[in-house]
Design brief:
D-Maltodextrin-Binding Protein, domain 2; disordered C terminus; 2 domains; elongated; four-stranded antiparallel beta sheet; two-stranded parallel sheet; alpha/beta; about 25% strand; about 210 residues; about 30% helix
């Protein structure tokens, strides 16, 4: 999960409360897998996700691109220079959640290698991931700007230039494209992120179906 500041959540909700005071807002935090299931069951109206694939039955509003990179503990020294992913074949990795945008990113980074990470502790929040890498637990995956902050604080090192880019989107049920509440959220998101909603209907061009 991303920090609320990375999602501009405070700015978004401040605008919604100011301009739409009658709208009742319930903010929930959860893993991608839960958010997708909750969307399908109409338990929630929409979700902010990082993904390269489009969850079935949804429409997406593209908000931003995000880059994630592999990071390693400073305590590992110079034995791991990032020249090859094979260097990380026999060291512990911090596990990312299945059915998630982070899993997609990791698979993208590893697609040209032949290693299978030795996944140990699972971390479902990026600040927790940062803390675990800094403590020497294992290889981690961090958002680029957060990784740079941690590197400058000498908490971790980049593993070469191994990274991948994904998309931050707002996902909602395609059957609710004309719903007034959804249109309000789309409009506020468009203002917050300075994007266009293409007349209230967002585009999912270039996205593939989310794997089951």
């Amino acid at each position: 999960m991303l920090d609320p500041s990375a999602l501009r959540l405070g700015q978004l909700l401040q605008g919604m409360v100011r301009h739409h005071p009658a709208l009742r807002i319930n903010v929930q935090v959860g893993r991608t897998s839960w958010l997708l299931d909750a969307l399908r069951s109409a338990e929630i109206d929409g979700a902010l996700l990082v993904c390269k694939t489009r969850p079935p039955g949804t429409r997406l509003l593209f908000l931003d691109e995000m880059t994630f990179r592999l990071v390693i503990p400073v305590s590992w020294g110079r034995d791991y220079d990032g020249s090859s992913l094979d260097q990380l074949a026999h060291v512990p990795w911090i596990r990312v959640a299945p059915r998630s945008g982070h899993r997609e990113i990791l698979q993208d980074i590893l697609k040209d290698s032949h290693i299978r990470p030795i996944e140990t502790v699972e971390a479902d929040h990026e600040q927790l991931m940062r803390t675990l890498v800094a403590a020497g637990v294992g290889v981690g995956l961090l958002r680029d700007d957060l990784a740079h902050q941690a590197q400058e604080a000498q908490e971790l090192n980049f593993f070469g230039d191994h990274k991948a880019t994904t998309r931050l989107v707002f996902a909602y049920d395609e059957g609710r494209a004309g719903d007034q509440a959804i249109q309000v959220v789309l409009g506020m998101l468009a203002d917050t992120w300075n994007v266009q909603t293409l007349g209230g209907v967002s585009s999912a061009a270039g996205f593939q179906e989310f794997p089951p």
